[in-house]
Amino acid sequence: MTRRGVLIGCGFFARNHMLAWRDLPDVTIVAVCDLDPAKAAAFSEEFGARAYGDAAQMLKEVRPDFADIATTVSSHRSLVELAAGHGCAVICQKPFAENLIDADAMVDACKHAGVELLIHENFRWQAPIRRIGELIDSGAIGQPQFLRLNFRHAFDIYANQPYLAQVEDLALSDVGLHLFDVARRLFGEVIRISCETQRLNPNVTGQDAFLAQMRHANGAVASVECSFFSHYAPDRFVQTLALVEGDEGSIELGDGYRLWVHRQGECLEEVVEPPVPSWGARPWNLVQDSVIAFQQHVLDVLAGRAKPQPSGADNLETLRLTFAAVQSARNGGRQVKLAAS
Ligand code: NAD
Q1: Ligand 1 centre and the CA of 193: distance in Å?
Q2: Could you give the CA distance from residue 68 to residue 9 in angstroms, rounded to a whole number?
Q3: Which of 45, 220, 281, 321 has its CA 20 to 30 A from that of 179?
Q4: Is there a single domain that holds both residue 129 and residue 254?
């Protein structure tokens, strides 16, 4: 059965969505929509989908199986509610919502409409993160006790996404929530967090670096480190480096996709670089492959073969953690407790 989807928002990152959908079997994007007619027309021409300027009209006429929302956050609530009202499954890009009230309302709207809501959290679908998850789940390092996630670079992200230069809580809201989602996927719920932010790049308005310290419900601790103004040669964008320790072993994920598993007095090395898609290129293959993996997962969910990873309800907790980090940073790094504690 071929699923019929529509795309809302034909901007910078949506191109990865469209290229990945085109690679996947049993799915077609039949229509695309953007407030900017030129952007919708360009995608329509490249991908052979009908172009619209109004999402409501597109949903009414096309009646798709799912809507893939790739707009920026301020439009997410209205578009998720609109798509749910048309009875189709909904995929929403991160950040899921601007606040927890909106996120709650979006989860409720999809629940009442009886449709799936998935959040496009592709970091947890990156090949190295999936491998670390498999190793932890298989008991390779025993009981998790320490996690370090490190995403530090100086790549010019503002060239493709100029709006980022004006975002106040930039590092936390753009990449922090991806890293918090990864931490929750690997180590479970967080019960308290403290966070310091920095404004490093003089050309941006917001806080472009943060350091968060967290306690998980299972007793493990985590350090999440992120900066958009840290200089390395070669630059490490788009890699997340990691250190994961358990009571029986450790995992290190280093630069260049090298992964070491230390256990029983031995160290085994693996290379966990994902393939380069036919339409992709290094170093973006990490991201491109993760979009394909996430969107294949969406098809598995729609076919009843998998549970959403993550669902809107799950991602609401990642958002809660992100806002707790913002609150901590604004209060001089004071610890914030989460409801799970
Ligand atoms: P963008 O500004 O390039 O594209 C957004 C597009 O949505 C624009 O063309 C805009 O005209 C359109 N749009 C806005 N409201 C609309 C509406 N109501 N109906 C139809 N079209 C509408 O933005 P971008 O950089 O592609 O980012 C989009 C989203 O993707 C953001 O939320 C961003 O955080 C996220 N993103 C995710 C990743 C990732 O790795 N998961 C990477 C980059 C960006």
Answers
A1: 29
A2: 9
A3: 281
A4: yes
